[in-house]
Amino acid sequence: MTQHYAEWLTAIVNTRLLFNTTEECEAFLDSGSIRSNGILRACATPQKMRSAFRDLKAEACEMTDDRVKLEDVLMHYKRAWKFFRKHLYRRTYPEKTAVEILTLCYPTGRQEKLGKQITAICKQIVERDISVPFLLLMLMKAVPSYESKEGDVTDIQQCFDRVLGFLERFTQGTTVFSQLPVLVQAKEEPCKTRLTLFYYVSEILKVYENFSTGENLYLVTDALKADRHDLDLAGYWNECGGRLDFTEFWEIEDTKDPGVFFLTSWKKKASGTLTGVRYTMFVLDAPGGGLTFLLHHPAAIAHRIKGKLYGDADIAHYLSLPLDDAPAEFTLERVLPSAHWPHSLHLTRCTDAAVTAQYERWLGGACAIERPFEKYEYDFTQSLYAITPTHLYVFYEAKDIFFKVPRTAADGLEQTCLDDNVGILTMNGKHYLAFDEIMLYIPINKKNLQKYKIEKVEWIE
């Protein structure tokens, strides 16, 4: 094991993986002799090497939200460098090669024919589990060789800009997001190092892979259902300690699905008008024991129906600490930068009868009600009635018929199960066949039914 520690410590220091300068590494390990004597002399005994590596491993975990193990990163780094040196070194057009590798290693259904040589290389990458993020960083000259002795990093911001700009161009328009949320997070990362850049590239490619095809999207959303966390939240909440200090409050309503709520923000204007915006809120278990709150703007589904991509104003990601099943208060901290969503919310349950009575008076007719996004509010009826080897049958109560949907009509439908959120969505007087797991919403009209080869039938065939 001592040999491993020696190799790992040497690689960490020489490649400036965790710290951009030797001085920063010396300060972290409280050793001023690394620059002059080298890391192995500074940690001259097996015990000191083990202790130093454990400290660095803990720091790597903190840098990456406990998502990576330092020894695994180093193993992948070494293997990727050996592969890169043999197959990809000195490429004339490295960015073109990077695009080809991502296209072949993360297939999205796009029909693209590439050369036999790069196809064979990518086949080896997949079969041998070579780290694509490290290969990408090497092609973009953002990390050096595993045996590097190039010295301190002076261009880490430029490396982030170059790599993230490349990934932004590559992923643009290929998922349900106008820009991947993790890309936004990466740009705002305060601790920019080669390790955090590797971490973000890995996360970006995971999200890209998960959301770029209907089949993968189904697997992700299906897995998220298992992470839903139900809470007793129904009632009135405000941000003034449950008192009637302000005329703004929140109303939380249960839905049929555990862990899914309607969250309405009410604001009483000086004119006496009460304005409300109803969001859909998903509560999920988060790594580390906390909770993730996903807030969907009422216009988000309307945008998907129209084929638009999710933008910053459509979805917000918040985190909270672990909560009791029926919390009296909770604080949400926004995860990603946003020009549209508040940085944090501190909500307190309103239990004072006088406060709740006042809210109910306002909602009961004392105030004029204004809902600027009411046309985007929707009702959903889960009505997947049967699944055959070739078709899905969705019951349409309004016409007392079934929609016979080919399981090949869209990518991801083949995996549909009877308990999935498939049914009829009604928004602004219009009806849609909804397949929530793959974020597909088909307007019920002649043109779209023909497009997807959907038939209206009176019985299951």
Concise structural overview:
By secondary structure, the protein is an alpha+beta fold. It has helices at 2-15, 22-29, 34-37, 39-42, 46-63, 70-87, 94-105, 116-127, 132-139, 156-171, 181-187, 194-211, 214-227, 299-305, 353-366, 446-451, and strands at residues 235-238, 248-254, 260-268, 274-285, 291-296, 315-320, 329-334, 344-349, 369-370, 378-382, 384-387, 391-396, 401-406, 422-427, 430-435, 440-443, 455-457.
Describe the structure.
The chain is of the alpha+beta class and 461 residues long. 39% of the residues lie in helices and 21% in strands. The strands form three sheets. Strands 1-2-3-4-5-6-7-8 form an eight-stranded antiparallel barrel. Strands 10-14-15-16 form a four-stranded antiparallel β-sheet, covered by helices on one side. A four-stranded antiparallel β-sheet has the order 11-12-13-17, with no helix packed on it.
Radius of gyration, in Å, reads: 27 Å
Strand order of the largest sheet: 1-2-3-4-5-6-7-8
Query: Which stretches are low in confidence, meaning pLDDT under 50 for 5 or more residues running?
Result: none
* Terminus-to-terminus distance: 65 Å
Total helix count? 16
Structural class: alpha+beta
Q: Total strand count, please?
A: 17
**Helical residues, percent:** 25-40%
What general form does the structure show?
Answer: globular
Largest sheet: 8 strands, antiparallel, barrel
Instruction: Give average pLDDT, whole number.
Output: 88
Strand composition percent: 15-25%
